[in-house]
Design goal:
heterodimer; A: 107 residues; mainly beta; 7-stranded mixed beta sheet; 11 strands; 0% helix; 50% strand; B: 117 residues; globular
Chain lengths: 107, 117
């Protein structure tokens, strides 16, 4: 199985800061990585697909980059509604796997 | 707009079977999506359990071995999860999701299931 390692586990920031969340794959997966946001008591929401492709309805402050084994989700100027947990997930091979998540919290 | 909704018992006894239904509206499940089950354990770990394709083929996570079955009822536009011989380690929130081009872009609201005697 492909292991996805997200870092950091927790990121404490103040609104207005810009942040980068990391996802590293245990083997090369091209750009077959997707990012989800999960707020408390809600279902996950797709933010970015295939490493860098934007999703309709998602604010432009969210962007993704990377290929191979290293991927980054960037949030430009964090807003209060962004405090939640972020997951990466690979679709390169079966079984699909998720990273352990990064919790973005208010400093 | 595709909408998914999970339903089923919130409490299951150890060694019994867990059964959940995912009802899909806004899209016909035979039209082109794949339909997955994912669960989130206490502590945030997420696990993909398996899927049934729009054509009816299935694929399961080997970690669940022979305990899992995903089926569907096309007349009701529903698909189902059955997980046998559950233990307390199967306590989780279970999500159904629609998958297009390998991306999980439509999710249900989740069903919390506790395994306890």
């Amino acid at each position: 199985d492909i292991v996805l390692t997200q870092s950091p586990a927790t990121l404490s920031v103040t609104p207005g800061e810009s942040v980068s969340l990391s996802c590293r794959a245990s083997q090369g997966i091209s750009t077959s990585i997707h990012w989800y946001q999960q707020k408390s008591n809600e279902s996950p929401r797709l933010l970015i697909k295939y490493a860098s492709q934007s999703i309709s309805g998602i604010p432009s402050r969210f962007s993704g980059s990377g290929s191979g084994t290293d991927f980054t989700l960037s949030i430009n100027r964090v807003e209060s509604e962004d405090f939640s947990v972020y997951y990466c997930q690979q679709s390169y091979s079966l079984p699909r796997t998720f990273g352990g998540g990064t919790k973005l919290e208010l400093k | 707009e595709i909408q998914l909704q999970e339903s089923g018992p919130g409490l299951v006894k150890p060694s019994q079977s867990l059964s959940l239904t995912c009802s899909v509206t806004g899209y016909t499940i035979t039209s082109g999506y794949d339909w997955s089950w994912i669960r989130k354990f206490p502590g945030n770990k997420m696990e993909w359990m398996g899927y049934i394709s729009y054509s009816g083929s299935t694929n399961y996570n080997p970690s669940l071995k022979s305990r899992i079955s995903i089926t569907r009822d096309t007349s009701k536009n529903q698909f189902f999860l059955q997980l046998n011989s559950v233990t307390t380690e199967d306590t989780a929130t279970y999500y159904c999701a629609g998958v297009t081009r390998y991306v999980m872009d439509a999710w249900g609201q989740g069903a919390s299931v506790t395994v306890s005697s």
